[in-house]
Amino acid sequence: METVKPLDVASGKGKLRRAFVKVINMKKLTGVVPEEEKVERVKKSQEKVLVKNAANLSESFDKLEEEYEKRLSMEALLAKLFATVSSIKAGYAQLQYAQSPYDPAGIQKSDNLVVSEMKTLSELKQSFLKNQFDPNPDRTLVLAEIQELRSVLKTYEIMGKKLECQLKLKDSEIIFLQEKLEESVNQNKMMQKRLNQSGPLDHNNPTHFVTYLHHTVKSIRGFVRLMIEQMKFAGWDIDMAAESIQREVFYYRQDQKCFAFEHFVCKIMFESFHLPFFTSESSSSSSSSSGHKKSRETKEMFFERFTELRSMKTKECLASRPKSRFSRFCRAKYLQLVHPKMEQACFGHVHQRNQVSAGEFPETSFCDAFLEMAKRVWLLHCLAFSFDPEASIFQVSEGCRFSEVYMKSVAEEAFYSSESEPRVAFTVVPGFRIGKTLVQCEVYLNAV
């Protein structure tokens, strides 16, 4: 028989304690805690979440605000950039306007403005590269908009002034053409009256040549007047231009300096007048030595050309016969008379010169006045070579004594301003001999 062992009370207590501890630990793991402790932990957890969410929101707002400020600063930079470009454009427009007519103070002011705005552009570039943005972009945006509007307004004002100048020039051209038309009508009436009184036009009537010479000189002076107006509008110094044509000439009145320009135009237009066709290349009929009959035919040919061209419009003649002697004469005289620098200064380009070189005269009042003058000179040449013997041209040298037989003074003041005998300063319009008839040359006199 087995003996019954006594119960170990101490070990039983230990086992019970261990079991109780396990139960407590299991309750803790399964969340079984007292209610108050549970509520406290939930509150703390929610507070942590709220604090974390608040920190995240604050950080997000800071990022958004930073991006907004950066974007606003970039917009301010661009607005200032465009405003500066508009200012440069306005300054350049003002610079162009100050050049014609020439205004030294205006050019200096415009140049300083352009240079200043270019420096501003350089500063904006450096600010962008270094990320140095404007601390007050709102104010900069408003100021940039005001600056741009002012620059645009200034540009429009300059354009308006240019259009006003062009309008004044067109008005002066209209007045000139109206005066020219009225003058031409009166001259045609007088010419018709003289022709009726002197009989039909023939080869050897000096009266007809003198009458046509008078009309030719009128057309030359009309062209010179228009040329001087163009030079004044372009800002040229008329005194300096007259001095460059004829140096050391004393003019009794300011308006008499136009005679220097008439001298320049006549010198070019009448150059080679003594040669057939204004060139040494004569036709076979004129260069032939077959006698008086050939010479007579040549004179008839010149008179026929005079009659034919006189009844035609200049533009029609040039368009229908672009390779004729008259067309070549017009192109050569224009290119010789109107210097490229003069055309560039007066019109701002050399398009007319390029067109004339290509054989086409543009539709401008300046070219129309030139063609009218060229046609008159060419017809006078044809009429001179239709005479038997042909009319000859002459002029007097500088410093010659005045002779009433060969000369006519365009300035009567020379005879009253000094007790000494006046001398020729320059020939304004050349003189002509037609048989026994002498047409005096017009001269400008200087008192010695």
Summary keywords:
single chain; 14 helices; 448 residues; three-stranded antiparallel β-sheet; three-stranded mixed β-sheet; mainly alpha; 2 domains; disordered N terminus
Architecture overview:
With 448 residues, this protein is mainly α. It folds into 2 domains: 44-164; 200-446, no CATH class. Helix content is 67%, strand content 6%. The protein has helices at 9-29, 35-99, 104-129, 137-198, 206-233, 238-245, 258-269, 284-287, 292-310, 314-320, 325-337, 340-347, 351-357, 365-386, and strands at residues 392-394, 407-409, 423-429, 431-434, 437-439, 441-446. Strands 1-4-5 form a 3-stranded antiparallel beta sheet, covered by helices on one side. Strands 2-6-3 form a 3-stranded mixed beta sheet. The longest helix has 65 residues, at 35-99. The chain is elongated, with a radius of gyration of 49 Å. 23% of the residues are buried. Mean pLDDT is 78; it is low at 1-10, 27-33 and 282-292.
Concise summary:
The chain has helices spanning 9-29, 35-99, 104-129, 137-198, 206-233, 238-245, 258-269, 284-287, 292-310, 314-320, 325-337, 340-347, 351-357, 365-386; strands spanning 392-394, 407-409, 423-429, 431-434, 437-439, 441-446.
Strand content: 5-15%
Which stretches are poorly predicted, pLDDT < 50 over at least 5 residues? 1-10, 27-33, 282-292
Q: What is the approximate shape?
A: elongated
**Mean of pLDDT:** 78
Tell me the major beta sheet: 3 strands, antiparallel
* Integer count of domains: 2
- As laid out across the biggest beta sheet, the strand order is 1-4-5
Helix share of residues? 55-70%
